[in-house]
Amino acid sequence: MVHHTISKSSTSAPSASSRIRIMRRALRLFCAAAIVGMLASCAVKQPAPPPPTTYPTESAPPTGDVADSAPLGPALQRPRSRWVPVRWSELPGFEQDAMHEAWNAWVKNCERPGATFARLCSEVRRLTLATPQEQRNWMRARLQPYRVEPLGAPSEGLLTSYFEPFYEASRLPRPGFGAPLYRPPPTLGQRKPWYTRQEMEMLPEARAQLAGQEIAYLADPVDALILQIQGSGRVRVTEPDGSQRLVRLAFAATNDQPYRSPGKWLIDQGLLRGDVTWPGIRNTLAANPGRLSEFLWSNPRMVFFREEPLSALDAQFGPRGAQGVPLTPGRSIAVDPQSIPYGTPVWMASQGPVANLQRLVIAQDTGTAIVGAVRADYFAGWGAEAGDFAGRMKQPLRLWVLWPKP
C-alpha cells in the first residue's frame, strides 16, 4: 500500500535556502521590468510616412495652387515677342483636348528638354498614365500661361503646316523611276554657293561631281522637289534583287542657294491663280507639261539627304526636328526660336477653312520661313493625306506659352 505523508514545508515557515531562491527570482523579475521600461523610454519615435503624391481627381475641383486665382506676374520679353500672363480660362478648348496624345510628345520632349523644363520631366513621365483631368490640374499647378504677342503693333498670327512625304523609290534608275535624290557630294564645301538646281542638270562638271551620290530614284520630279522642300521624307526602296526596305531620308546639307517658291513662280508666269496648293500646282503642270523644267529650276535651292534605317518604333514618329527629338504628328510645331524656345509646351488656337485646332503642342522645330512672334508650322504627319492637309493649311493663329512657375 502507498503511504502518503504531508510535507512540512507546506505548513511550516520556509527554510533559509528557500528564501534565497525566492529573492533571486524576484530580483530577476525586477531587473527585466526595469530593462523593458528603460528601452521604452529611450526608443526614438519614427515619423509617419508622407502621403503619396496625388493630384485632384476628375470629380474633385482644383484647390490651392491648382486654382486659377493666383496673382498674375509681369509680362516677359523675348527677342521677337512679348509674353503677357493670363488666366487658364483664356485658353480656348483647354478642357476638351485629348491630353494623352500631347503627353506622348511631352515625354519625347524630355529626351532633350533644356534646363527650364528638365526639372519637370520626372513628373511628366509619372503622369503618363494619369487621367486627362489630373494632367490638366498638374499643368495648372506647375505652369503659367502667357499670351504671345508681337513686340510692335498687334498683328494676326499665321499657321501653316508641313509633313513628311512618303514615296515609292528605286535604288537604281529604271523605266518610270528617273528622278534622283542625292547625298552630299564630296566637293560641296569647296564652293559656296554650290551649283544651282539648273546647273546640276545642265553643266557636265556639276553632273560629274554628283555621279555616284544617288541614294534612290523617284518616279516624279515634282515629288523629289516636294521632298527637298520639306527637308526629309520616308521612302520604300526597291533594291536590285527585288526586295524592299523602308528608310528615312533625313536632311544632310544644301547647296547654299536661296529658296524661291515654285508656286509663286507659277503665279508670276500667269499660269496659276488662287489655288496655290500642291494639288492645284500639279493640275497646272499637267495642263502645261512644257513648263515643267522651268518650274523646277525656279527654285535654285537643292537639299541633299542621308539615309537612315526606319524601325517599327521609329516609324510611329516623324523625323527629328531642330530640337533633336522625333516629331509627333498633330502635336509638334515649328516656331521662331527667338520668340518661343525649343521644348516649350504651347497652347495653340486656329480656326479656318481647313481645320479648327485648339490643342496642346510642343515647340520642337523651326524653318527658314518660320519667322515672327505668332508664327507656327504644324507637323501633320506623313503620307498623301498629311500632304494634302499641309498643302491647304493657311489660317489665323493665336499662341500661349506654358512656362514653369518659380
Automatic annotation (TrEMBL):
<keyword id="KW-0961">Cell wall biogenesis/degradation</keyword>
<dbReference type="Pfam" id="PF03562">
    <property type="entry name" value="MltA"/>
</dbReference>
<dbReference type="GO" id="GO:0004553">
    <property type="term" value="F:hydrolase activity, hydrolyzing O-glycosyl compounds"/>
</dbReference>
<dbReference type="Pfam" id="PF06725">
    <property type="entry name" value="3D"/>
</dbReference>
<dbReference type="GO" id="GO:0008933">
    <property type="term" value="F:peptidoglycan lytic transglycosylase activity"/>
</dbReference>
<dbReference type="GO" id="GO:0009254">
    <property type="term" value="P:peptidoglycan turnover"/>
</dbReference>
<feature type="domain" description="Lytic transglycosylase MltA">
    <location>
        <begin position="166"/>
        <end position="306"/>
    </location>
</feature>
<dbReference type="GO" id="GO:0071555">
    <property type="term" value="P:cell wall organization"/>
</dbReference>
<dbReference type="InterPro" id="IPR036908">
    <property type="entry name" value="RlpA-like_sf"/>
</dbReference>
<dbReference type="InterPro" id="IPR026044">
    <property type="entry name" value="MltA"/>
</dbReference>
<dbReference type="GO" id="GO:0019867">
    <property type="term" value="C:outer membrane"/>
</dbReference>
<protein>
    <recommendedName>
        <fullName>peptidoglycan lytic exotransglycosylase</fullName>
        <ecNumber>4.2.2.n1</ecNumber>
    </recommendedName>
</protein>
<dbReference type="GO" id="GO:0009253">
    <property type="term" value="P:peptidoglycan catabolic process"/>
</dbReference>
<dbReference type="InterPro" id="IPR010611">
    <property type="entry name" value="3D_dom"/>
</dbReference>
<keyword id="KW-0456">Lyase</keyword>
<feature type="region of interest" description="Disordered">
    <location>
        <begin position="47"/>
        <end position="78"/>
    </location>
</feature>
<dbReference type="InterPro" id="IPR005300">
    <property type="entry name" value="MltA_B"/>
</dbReference>
